[in-house]
Design goal:
The complex is a heterodimer. Chain A is mostly helical. Chain A has helices at 11-17, 19-28, 30-36, 47-66, 74-89, 99-121, 126-146, 148-151, 179-201, 204-214, 216-221, 226-252, 263-276, 281-306, 320-334; strands spanning 164-165, 167-168, 344-345, 348-349. In chain A, α4 (47-66) packs across α13, α5 (74-89) packs parallel to α7 and α5 packs across α12 (226-252). Chain A has a two-stranded antiparallel sheet. The longest helix of chain A is centred in the C-terminal third of the chain and has 27 residues, at 226-252. Chain A is built from 15 helices and four strands. Helix content of chain A is 66%, strand content 2%. By secondary structure, chain B is mainly α. Chain B contains twelve helices and no strands. Chain B has helices at residues 4-35, 42-59, 69-98, 106-129, 136-142, 179-201, 203-213, 215-220, 225-249, 258-274, 279-299, 305-319. Chain B is globular. Classes of the chains: A mainly alpha, B mainly alpha. Chains A and B meet through α7, α13 and α15 of A and α4, α10 and α12 of B.
Chain lengths: 350, 333
């Protein structure tokens, strides 16, 4: 926050002048606002879904936004996280770990898969890396679908544990207002991730990411170990995506159909980062809220408001591809920096 | 050990699939060679071409007896209309989407291409739901099933057969060659020879090669590179259009999402395998991928065929990014 108009005044005055503090306040206090709304307009129960999406955006933010590697297979890591969590915790298998160890397993699986894919592919040039990650994404979906001994394929692994915080969180669907606890828990997860990323980005590592993104040759010439920096970013991004996958599976109570983690999900993640602003942490979160919100809330509510319609043209979900496609094309053409452009400071960028 | 008949069957199916793939792979490799863009929407352009062919078939008046003169005239008409449609779409996209951002970062163009691919997919979805095959009155008068191509917008579409499905060879030979395969070879081989002539011998071809080699030098030599790039997109689109018609004649089911994505990834893998930017390489790569697919489909588990093609792609990108015929080029500063 080196911009001069934000520097004046006491820390509290500075916070009050930054729109981001108000956005955070509204999101944290949303349960109170939501309960005051008429039942039709309540969206609270859908919010944890969006917050789980935010991890996808944070993962892609690290790989694509900060380090400049176009990652088209992020959905695969979400799937790996979700299935690692499901396999290690479901009652269908003997492991039956709790929520916290299961989350640990998911993150470990995401991290190792990230190293496995990142080791050979981060050495590739930009567009080849993009295609290699895309291919990996498709292979993972096929593996999960075909290895149904382990993953139960499209039947999904069910009966996953709820988070345990001294007490077990109630089921989000069947218990009224249970979502409030999930909301705050997932917000806490995001807060930890954002704190971690914010500190990383202001460290030597984060500055190396930016240097590699801006000019790989120059970064190499300055003595930055480019291969290691890229691999580190790729692995961290994979771990974040896997965390999101585990949180999503936990929220859903099952692993979900492998085909849900397809290329569309990866492109949605890319769209979040591009819409928000490549390289901007705030932008990634804003993008996740807008696109996650569009996907989870608008599509859901619009379909309900329009009612059951026979007309294919009136069903909003039939226009989803067009909306994302147009958004990508138009953003690239007219506003490549996104809606919350990255701030560049003397010491790096945020 | 598979016997000779199985091997011959693999060969026939693999090579004819590979020839269709070659047409698509050429579109990838030409565009990449000239502006270094992985034209992500190319496979989906093919899918739109298939939908155009489907509409064309239904406008020609159903039912069509396979192999009748009615069917042959329809095929001939499709071979003109569909490539023209695909070329037009590709040219339009180049003009509206890629040209304004030319000169920017490479990934910007790639992300735009992904966007275009999604727009195409959505057009395919809506197209598949439109009752384009015949107006309701005609449907009732002819007694045709009102939705002959599939039950809903997003379902697989069955393309009406235009060619007879029986084997042209005596049955005791044990290997099948259908009319669709004959037409495939009969179309692709002249098209590929024509392409080779166009690139090697004509003024346009020389200008294309010059632009691919060094756009700035080409411009200094008086070549209108924008026009050449446009023509490359038109040509690539037309090839995809021919591929789309052949795909329809082979009787594969058409899907707004899978058809384009699978064909696109196969063809891109073929282009990389042959060495992206190299035209003969694209054809050789496509034949190899066609054979890999058919042998895996026939001998092994077809469930794993797609995963295998992707695995080949990743291994190629890692270990031999230059492909079989291409050369490894260091990224320019």
């Amino acid at each position: 926050m080196n911009a001069s108009h934000l520097m004046a005044g006491s820390p509290w005055q500075r916070l009050a002048r930054d729109w981001r503090s108000w956005a955070v306040l509204i999101i944290v206090a949303w349960p109170a606002i939501d309960l005051a709304l008429p039942t039709d307009l309540r969206i609270g129960a859908l919010l944890p879904n969006i917050l789980a999406f935010a991890f996808l955006a944070l993962g892609i933010h690290v790989v694509t936004g900060a380090t400049g590697l176009l990652h088209l297979g992020a959905a695969a890591f979400v799937a790996i996280g979700a299935f690692a969590f499901a396999i290690s915790t479901t009652t269908a298998f003997p492991f039956q770990l709790g929520f916290w160890p299961g989350l640990g397993v998911a993150i470990a699986a995401g991290t190792s898969a990230g190293v496995l894919l990142g080791l050979p592919t981060t050495r590739l040039r930009g567009d080849y890396l993009a295609i290699a990650t895309l291919g990996f994404g498709e292979i993972v979906v096929d593996l999960l679908k075909n290895l149904d001994v382990i993953t139960k394929g499209t039947q999904t692994l069910g009966d996953l544990p709820k988070p345990w915080l001294g007490v077990t969180l109630p089921n989000i669907v069947s218990t009224a207002n249970a979502w409030i606890w999930w909301h705050w828990l997932y917000l806490a997860f995001i807060a930890v991730a954002v704190w971690l990323l914010h500190n990383l980005q202001n460290s030597q590592i984060g500055r190396a990411w930016i240097a590699v993104r801006e000019d790989e040759l120059a970064a190499r010439a300055m003595g930055i170990p480019v291969a290691r920096v890229k691999l580190g970013a790729f692995t961290l991004g994979s771990a974040l995506c896997a965390t999101g996958g585990a949180l999503y599976a936990c929220l859903l109570g099952n692993s979900s159909d492998p085909t849900n983690y397809d290329f569309m999900l990866s492109v949605m993640g890319i769209s979040m980062v591009i819409l928000g602003g490549m390289g901007s942490l705030t932008g990634a979160l804003v993008g996740a809220m807008v696109i996650g919100g569009f996907n989870v809330i608008i599509l859901d509510k619009m379909t309900r408001w329009l009612g059951e319609t026979d007309s294919m043209l009136l069903s909003l979900s039939n226009w989803q591809y067009l909306i994302f496609g147009l958004m990508l094309v138009l953003m690239m053409r007219f506003r490549p920096a996104g809606v919350v452009p990255e701030r560049r400071t003397a010491r790096g960028s945020r | 050990m598979p016997d000779l008949h199985v091997l011959l069957e693999i060969l026939v199916i693999g090579l004819s699939n590979g020839m269709v793939l070659a047409l698509i792979a050429l579109g990838y490799t030409m565009v990449y060679g000239i502006i270094e863009l992985i034209n992500f929407a190319h496979g989906d352009l093919l899918m739109l071409g298939c939908f155009a062919a489907l509409t064309g078939v239904s406008m020609a008046g159903l039912p069509i007896t396979p192999g009748s003169s009615h069917a042959w005239i329809t095929i001939a008409a499709l071979m003109i209309i569909v490539p023209a449609f695909c070329a037009g779409m590709n040219g339009l996209v180049e003009r509206l989407v890629y040209r304004p951002i030319r000169g920017g970062p490479k990934l910007t163009a790639l992300v735009s291409a992904i966007g275009v691919s999604f727009i195409f997919v959505n057009i395919g979805l809506i197209w598949g739901g439109l009752p384009l095959w015949a107006p309701a009155g005609v449907v009732n008068a002819l007694g045709i099933d009102p939705a002959p191509f599939g039950s809903s917008a997003s379902s697989f579409k069955n393309i009406p057969a235009l060619l007879p499905a029986e084997n042209l060879l005596p049955s005791h030979w044990g290997v099948g060659i259908r009319m669709a395969e004959v037409v495939t070879f009969g179309t692709t081989i002249p098209v590929l020879i024509g392409m080779s002539w166009l690139i090697r011998r004509t003024r346009l071809g020389r200008a294309m090669r010059a632009t691919a080699q060094d756009p700035i030098a080409a411009r200094l030599m008086g070549i209108d590179t924008n026009r050449i790039i446009s023509h490359t997109f038109l040509l690539g689109g037309a090839l995809a259009g021919v591929g789309a018609v052949l795909l329809c004649l082979r009787g594969d089911a058409l899907h707004f999402q899978f058809t384009g994505f699978r064909a696109g990834m196969d063809a891109f893998t073929a282009a990389v395998l042959g060495g992206i930017g190299s035209l003969p390489g694209a054809v050789i790569g496509a034949l190899i991928i066609g054979l890999v697919r058919s042998s895996n489909d026939i001998l092994g588990e077809s469930l794993w065929t797609n995963a295998m093609v992707f695995a080949i792609l990743i291994l190629l990108l890692i270990f031999r990014p230059g492909g079989l015929l291409g050369s490894t080029v260091r990224e320019k500063v």
